Amino acid sequence: MRMIAAAVLAAGGLGLAARADDKPLDRALVDKRAAKAAYDTALLGSELWKAGNYEGCFRLYQGSLMGLRPMLDHRPKLMGSVLEALNRADRMRPEEGAFVLRAALDAIRKETAAPPPKPLWDRLGGEKTARAVVKDFVDAALKDPKADLSRGGKYKWEGKDRERLEQVMVEILSDYTNGPLKYTGPGPDEVMAGTKITDDEFRVMGQHLVVALKAHKVSDEDATAVLERLGRLKPYVVGK
Q1: Which domains does the chain have, with CATH numbers?
Q2: Which residues contact 36 (CB under 8 A, 6 or more apart)?
């Protein structure tokens, strides 16, 4: 019973904790806490049910929902369905009402759970933005002697060669950011064989890539993530 009381108090205390400093409620944080409380309650309730403690399971679900309901005022439809479940279950035997209350807990978990984060590729803007970023990057790197993308004029990167270079870079960017385009060409070490790119040149290229990303409204956080992921190519590029 102590575990049941603790779970009920935890659910009921969500509102008190959120309002303790009289600051406006962060609804995303409230949802996160509600989803966690509903999950923990359902988990503990399942254990009580398996142990044959139907009354305890029912009361746990009931108390937790009573504590969670006031925290759902920004979700009036869900708040109303929880009240309806509480009223309906109150007229049932515990072994029947527990199922009604569990369904209400599951509904809270489903509606308040944070959506899965978008893949980095999508946050960048997908293929359209990727191609624009790569084009700007190649333009800047070709003009910068510190990057020396042309390797002292050895590679002109014009016409079909330029198109192929950009296509390869878009495919690699997609592959490293969970996009739909997969790189199917030769390995980076084979592609870069004989170029002898230095650490400094690799770093400068990375700087140009970040500038291109930010020019297309990619956030600092996502630009950093791209640079970190593509940084894994360094052992296959530098000094080859």
Answers
A1: 2-112 (no CATH), 120-237 (1.10.490.10)
A2: none
